[in-house]
Amino acid sequence: MPSPHSAPPDTPTTRRGRRKEARPGELLAAALDLFVEKGFAATRVDEVAAHAGVSKGTLFLYFPSKEELFKAVVRENISGRFAEWDVELEGFTGTSSELLRYCFQTWWERVGATKASGLAKLMLSEANNFPELAHFYRQEVVEPGHDLVRRILQRGMDRGEFRTVDLEHAVYLVLAPLMFLMLAQPTMGLCIPCPERFDPDQYIQLQADNVLQGLLVRAT
């Protein structure tokens, strides 16, 4: 007789129960794969369901439309992390230069070097065809991202570490090199003559150095 503390037997019923709990995450992972690979318009919900190993009906239990599925993918992989990033910013105890470097590196590790970076490329290519999704992406990703960078720059100015700059334009000093790296990833051979010699981490450090050279207050 099994002990009262032993794990339940691995029966078809228990496997189905575990799989039911895992389905939303599996569907979001499958949707991310296909949206990035094929784009929003070309991805069919039955393909996503098949990729996740469930029926189309099961997908619609969790996500009533392809648009809602896409929004859930964006929230899972990018916009849902802003609360965490806000906490990190508020609790950061180093200099603003260190914070900006941390921002560069963390963005690359958590978004730029992952499949989630493909969502930005998807929106750039399909925004005109799906204005409602473009509006959602702007509200959920672009605007909070800009606000986060503005707060880092304002922190530096308030502490006398950064010179006074126009925040609305200075945001793009930080974002432009990151956008280039993200967009160049799938076509590195076209953008960079020797992609095998290109190190994204070294590029990020160089760009952080370059941005900080323009921002730091210089001793007189």
Question: Any chance you could write out the topology, listing elements then pairs?
Answer:
Blueprint: H1 12-38, H2 45-52, H3 56-62, H4 66-77, H5 82-91, H6 96-112, H7 117-126, H8 131-158, H9 167-184, H10 188-191, H11 200-215
Task: Kindly describe this structure.
The protein has 220 residues and is mainly alpha-helical. It has 2 domains: 12-74, Homeodomain-like (Arc Repressor Mutant, subunit A); 78-215, Orthogonal Bundle (Tetracycline Repressor, domain 2), CATH 1.10.357. It is 71% helix and 0% strand. The protein has 11 helices and no strands. It has helices at residues 12-38, 45-52, 56-62, 66-77, 82-91, 96-112, 117-126, 131-158, 167-184, 188-191, 200-215. Helix 5 (82-91) runs parallel beside helix 8 (131-158), helix 6 packs antiparallel against helix 8 (131-158) and helix 6 (96-112) packs parallel to helix 9. Residues 44-63 bind DNA. Keywords: DNA-binding, Transcription, Transcription regulation. This is TetR family transcriptional regulator. Residues 21-81 form the HTH tetR-type domain. GO terms for molecular function: DNA-binding transcription factor activity; transcription cis-regulatory region binding.
Task: Give a short synopsis of this structure.
By secondary structure, the chain is mainly alpha-helical. It has eleven helices and no strands.
Topology as a string of helices (H) and strands (E): HHHHHHHHHHH
**Shape descriptor:** elongated
| β-strand amount | under 5%
List segments where confidence is low: pLDDT < 50 over at least 5 consecutive residues: 1-8, 10-19
CATH-derived topology of the largest domain: Tetracycline Repressor, domain 2
Question: Helical region count?
Answer: 11
Strand count, sense and barrel status of the largest sheet are:
none
Tell me the domain tally.
2
Structural class: mainly alpha
Helix content: over 70%
User: How far is it from the N-terminal to the C-terminal residue, by CA?
Assistant: 82 Å
Total strand count, please? 0
- Which second-level CATH architecture of the largest domain applies? Orthogonal Bundle
CATH class of the largest domain: Mainly Alpha
Q: Overall pLDDT, averaged?
A: 87
Using only C-alpha atoms, the radius of gyration works out to: 22 Å
